[in-house]
Amino acid sequence: MSSIDEVKAEIKKLSAKAMNLKMNLHDLSEELPINWHTILPLAQETHDAYAALEAARHKLKELEAA
To answer: What pLDDT is stored for residue 66 in this prediction?
Structure first.
């Protein structure tokens, strides 16, 4: 993935995924203590999604600067 448009499309996809996971984590917190055992896996998945989004945004900045 090297073109700016491809990275922008990936950012849009990653952003939607991260926001969805954030909302799932929020919903889980409101339902506690029900499903408490899913906190760590969901939190890790949310963390990973935001890390990927940050990396994609960094890549976009690099491409735009080149």
So the answer is: 83
Identify which of 22, 20, 26, 24 has the alpha carbon closest to the alpha carbon of residue 47: 22
Q: Which domain holds residue 45?
A: 4-65
**Count of domains observed in the chain:** 1
The pLDDT assigned to 2 comes to 66
Average pLDDT over residues 19-41: 97
CATH of the domain at 12: 1.10.287.660
Compute the distance between CA of residue 17 and CA of residue 50 in angstroms, rounded to an integer: 9
Three-state secondary structure string covering 30-63: HHCCCCHHHHHHHHHHHHHHHHHHHHHHHHHHHH
